[in-house]
Amino acid sequence: PAPQSIVPLLSSASFFFLTMVRFEATALAALALYLPASSAADRLRGSSPSSPQEAVVVTASVEENNPFIDIQRAGIDRSLASIHVESELSFVSDEQLGALGEYISRYSVDGNTDIPETCPLDYEGDVDPYHPDSYTTLGSGRSLMGEMDMDQEMDHSHMHYVQSECNAMLDMATCVDWSLWFDTNNITMSSEVKIPCGECVTLDAGPGQDMEGLTLEFEQGLNIVGKLVIPSGADIQLITKYVFVQGVLEMPPPPAGTPISSEDSGPKVKITLYGTEEVIFNPDEATENSHKGGEAVSAKAFVVAGGRVDVRALDPGCPGWVKLQSVTYGAALPNIALNKPATQSSTYNNAGDGASSAVDGNYNSFTHTNCWKGINEWWKVDLADLYTISSITVGNRLDCCGGRFHDATFYFYDENDEEVYVMPTSGGIGNKKSFSVGASVDARYVKVTIGDQDCLQIGEFEVYGWKASEGIPLENMDRLHVGEEAANCWKSPGSRIMLTSDTYEWDDSHIEVVADVPSEPGTIAVYPLTKKKSAVDETFGYPDFAVEVALLDRSLIIEGAKDEGEFATLGGHFIVLHTPHVHQHLEGALLQNMGQQGKLGRYPLHFHMSECVHGSTLSKNVIWKSNQRCVVVHGSHNVTVSENVAFDTKGHCFMLEDGGEWDNVFYKNLGAKVG
């Protein structure tokens, strides 16, 4: 039966369209080509049209687990779907129309649905059969009349990495446990660790296995030329200069109902990329790519070149993010700084401006230090016991000079006055602003400085928390109603939850921490919210106005090691490099401190000049604290980017690099605090 969701685009004498139908059901999709009454249209039909909106329909089955169908899946030339002309289509060549007509007749007659899996423009040779006058440039944009932009002056096909014949039987190979393989083959960690082509190794770090909870440090790198399997439930850390995937990296999904591990609890696979020196990728001599020269891939590189990633690191039923349905607020926490001893670096003029004015409960009084005396002035409170800090609220001086308090940094100290945590912030505070600490810090002393050597003025300094020795009372917890699927996946205590901004402030998003899972279905209890957030039940029937809620933790972590100085923004990067016709799948990973600021092509998640990668998916990943961008698709086609969460990132976040990329689907991705 014809799908119910087809809404064709109407054509006119100046346009014709090839509509792309998308719907979320396993059924038949219909692709309708609407042609105007022109000589070109008549040549394609071979006869006069019965109406100006006559349609030729091609059908194709929707791929299982992929709700999208596109024009390339049906074997139709996508460049003919976007022609804009001044009058009619008479200039389109007979060869071009003939090629399109051949595809239509071949795949639509008598209900034939044997549609090719490949992109219609993936072919051998230098001539495009749809565009005989144009140069074959598979990795970039294309001009119908043979005009070329800068990227089209070069055929990138000679740079492609292909899958290797020596891995043809990998799916039938018996996998050997890493611990046994390592010992048997006398592997040393001081040189590159390579899984040879045709061999399969399982990282035996699951519950009760030999490598559970271990840390492996590779002094050079890990080169997967064969196959590496990471079992679900594995708990291990790999520290390496690089990861090359020339074969297969596989991680099967966990059993249904498995909650996602938090930062401090539950099994996790953590891959830490380190180093600051340039890394060179050299194809392995056992592969068909061995004749290609080395390629510089920068430091901290995770490179897929001629290989395949099939990583499914979370229960497929877990959502990437949801709308906040409602909130049940607990009892307010006490201000534990009220009337506590306070000190400051200096006092301006008189004792009335002293440190205690910030903890007297009176917003009309304020502290006042000296100004521009060659130091960053500070203020400090003694809470008189060890407390778990949930949030801090700072009230500004109200009568004037509120702009002086800006770019504050908060310092936390234990009972021995040893620093345990530093929390930098940016911007001013207006009359008053709250800062979430995330209930992850136990401290007795709290200190604050500002971003320059001006006067430090504080109207009131409020600290909210509870005694670390007692824990938070249940009545003080807030309850977030997020739906059963999310609650079941996000229930690990200590999990970090991000709530987006519901104000005009771009950085007014907050991280909260899961404290408990109430018995009420679809609900998680968190430490008290820093501020109230708009939920669906408060938006008068307009759910788009409600904030989004996302879990930032994942059971698979890919991170760049943090460096200092000139390398402070040199994170890791993940790239699928010149690898066409391979179905890549990365689902459920946390990528943190990824991206390399100022380095072209070094992004957290990146498809680079891989052309048709039909069926490839980046889904439900978290990109957090990126130094440069989030997800970039460059010269690659048919990638589905769905339900990913990007938070606290730099630069354009979700990006098509050239604009000549085809049939990529960006669906239900969330970006917050993108700077």
How would you characterize the overall build of this protein?
The chain is 5% helix and 32% strand. The chain has four helices and 41 strands. The protein has a 15-stranded parallel beta sheet that branches. A hairpin with a 6-residue loop joins β28 and β29 (523-526).
How would you concisely characterize the structure shown here?
The protein is mostly beta strands. The protein is built from four helices and 41 strands. It is elongated, with a radius of gyration of 29 Å.
Question: How is the topology of this model organized?
Answer:
Layout: E1 17-18, E2 28-34, H1 39-45, E3 55-61, H2 94-108, E4 176-177, H3 178-184, E5 193-195, E6 200-202, E7 215-217, E8 222-224, E9 227-229, E10 236-240, E11 242-245, E12 248-251, E13 269-273, E14 280-281, E15 295-296, E16 301-304, E17 308-312, E18 321-323, E19 326-328, E20 342-344, E21 378-395, E22 409-413, E23 419-424, E24 432-449, E25 460-467, E26 478-481, H4 484-489, E27 496-499, E28 510-516, E29 523-526, E30 548-551, E31 556-560, E32 573-577, E33 585-587, E34 589-592, E35 605-619, E36 622-624, E37 631-642, E38 645-649, E39 654-656, E40 665-667, E41 670-674
Parallel strand pairs: 4-6, 5-8, 6-9, 7-10, 8-11, 9-12, 10-13, 11-16, 12-17, 13-31, 16-32, 17-33, 31-34, 32-35, 33-35, 34-36, 35-37, 36-38, 37-39, 37-40, 38-41
Antiparallel strand pairs: 1-2, 2-3, 14-15, 18-30, 19-26, 20-21, 21-24, 21-25, 22-23, 22-24, 26-29, 27-28, 27-30, 28-29
Helix pairs in contact: 1-2
